[in-house]
Design goal:
five-stranded mixed β-sheet, 17% helix, 154 residues, disordered N terminus, two-stranded antiparallel sheet, alpha+beta
C-alpha cells in the first residue's frame, strides 16, 4: 500500500492516516430564533476520550476513517454514515489535519473506535446548544468590581 501525501506542505499527513469524524447537531441563531443544522467535523483524540467517559455531547455518531475516504484532493466526499442534510464544518481540511496529528501523538486513542467502524451509543444531548454564529458582546456592566485592597500590600 502506498502512502500519498495530500499537500506538499503537509508531509507528515497521508491519505491513509486515521481520523474520527463526528455528526454534530448545532444551531444557527437568526433574528432570535435557533435553526438546527447537522455538521460533519473531525474529532481530536482528547475530545474523543472525553466523549467516551460519558460527558454529554452534541455528536450523534462518530466514525473512524482514513482521511482519504473523506478528502480527495480538494474535494470533500460525504460517506454513507452521514445523512444528506449534513454539511461539512468551516475549515474542514485544516481541522482534519490538526485532528490527525492528535491521533499521531496519542495512538492509543485509535483503539476507542477501530478504523472503519461507527459508534452511535454516545451520550447525545442538546441541553447545552452549540451555537455556531454566536457573538459575544461585552458591556460595561459585565466588568467585575474589585475590592479596594486587591492591589495593595497590607
Amino acid at each position: 500500500m502506498s502512502t500519498t501525501t495530500l499537500l506538499p506542505n503537509q508531509t507528515d499527513i497521508s491519505m491513509d492516516n486515521y481520523c474520527v469524524f463526528g455528526l454534530a447537531t448545532c444551531f444557527l441563531k437568526d433574528d432570535g430564533e435557533f435553526h438546527q443544522v447537522r455538521v460533519i467535523e473531525p474529532i481530536p483524540s482528547a475530545a474523543l476520550e472525553a466523549i467516551f467517559k460519558g460527558i454529554p455531547t452534541s455528536y450523534e455518531l462518530a466514525c473512524a476513517k482514513s482521511i482519504g475516504e473523506i478528502l480527495t484532493g480538494e474535494t470533500l466526499t460525504k460517506t454513507a454514515e452521514f445523512p444528506d442534510d449534513a454539511q461539512f464544518c468551516d475549515n474542514f481540511t485544516e481541522r482534519t489535519f490538526a485532528a490527525v496529528r492528535t491521533y499521531q501523538t496519542r495512538p492509543d486513542a485509535k483503539s476507542l473506535i477501530p478504523l472503519g467502524t461507527v459508534k452511535e451509543d454516545l451520550n447525545f444531548s442538546l441541553e447545552k446548544k452549540r451555537v455556531l454564529n454566536a457573538v459575544n458582546v461585552v458591556k460595561t456592566e459585565d466588568n467585575v468590581k474589585q475590592h479596594s485592597h486587591t492591589h495593595q500590600v497590607l
